[in-house]
Amino acid sequence: MQRLDGVRWKLKVSCEVLLYGQDETTNTEGKHMAIRRQWIASSLVLWWFGGVILGAIAFAEADAVGKKAYQKMCQSCHAADGTGNNTIAKSMKISIPPVTGAALEKQDDAAMLSIIAEGKGKMPGYAKMLSAEEQQKVLDYMKTLGR
Ligand code: HEC
Fold this sequence. Notes:
This protein has about 150 residues and is mostly helical. It has a single domain (about 1-140), classed as Cytochrome c-like domain (Cytochrome Bc1 Complex, Chain D, domain 2), CATH 1.10.760. About 70% of the residues lie in helices and about 0% in strands. The protein contains 6 helices and no strands. Helix 1 (about 1-20) packs antiparallel against helix 2 (about 30-80) and helix 2 crosses helix 6. The protein starts with a helix and ends in a 5-residue tail after the last helix. Bound molecules: heme C. Heme C binds near residues 96, 99, 107, 123 and 138.
């Protein structure tokens, strides 16, 4: 929500500056203003794309951390695609719920995070192995499964 507000705000400021830059003036003061506006406009372009690039890097990083932890600790039971490992389920006599994007969409994030931290039934808790941030990243990674 905060990110959306940020984007809206950026859009508003950018539009205001660009629209303001439309009226042409001929005196020196006006020319200086025009140059300044051009400069502001190019800064705005950088500001926009800089945010997009940084966002993409941050996302890729979260993705990599979550994916690594998932492959190491969760995949044996939950399977690479999140649908659950049938062989393990049978041998342990447990049913493994799907942890795909579609399945997790219907679940409450806080409840999922608490299962990851504390465990549930035959699933062990991971509070000692993963920081709260890493637990969140694994959850974020699982939400990309099957998407
Ligand atoms: C030993 C097998 C096993 C491992 C390893 C395992 N899980 Fe689970 N997981 C289960 C089982 C079984 C359940 C169902 C628990 C219940 O409801 O009784 C479950 C449930 C869950 C749920 C709740 C899904 C839902 O819809 O209720 C999440 C989220 C989850 N696991 C994430 C993880 C993550 C993240 C890891 C690795 C850090 C992990 N699991 C490792 C067996 C495992």
